[in-house]
Write a structure and sequence with these properties.
alpha+beta
């Protein structure tokens, strides 16, 4: 479900992936990251944002078998959005670092 917070959550996910040394995090780590920024959301909501970003080519995912764990890797277009080189509808502009 889209809320006024959704675009911010998407940017936080992209920036979290950008700032990780391997440019990838699990859905559970992304949930923790969002909580640090005041977004206490369930894992299903995190997965919804990951799916939204994946459908638009900003991230790639790898499902870990029968477990609910998803490894998310930022794609080049997602990196461009996270760094502020391009703007994307439905995603807030990057936070100042």
């Amino acid at each position: 479900m889209e809320t006024i917070f959704t675009p911010n959550q998407r940017m936080l996910i992209l920036q979290g992936l950008k700032n990780d040394a391997g440019h990838n995090l699990s859905n559970e780590m992304l949930q923790r990251l969002l909580k640090e920024y005041g977004h206490a959301v369930g894992i299903s909501e995190v997965n919804e944002q990951i799916n939204w970003l994946e459908q638009r080519g900003y991230v790639k995912t790898k499902r870990m078998g029968a477990t609910p764990l998803v490894i998310v890797t930022i794609a080049r277009p997602g990196l461009d959005v996270a760094e502020g080189f391009i703007r994307a509808e439905g995603i807030d502009p990057p936070l100042e670092e």
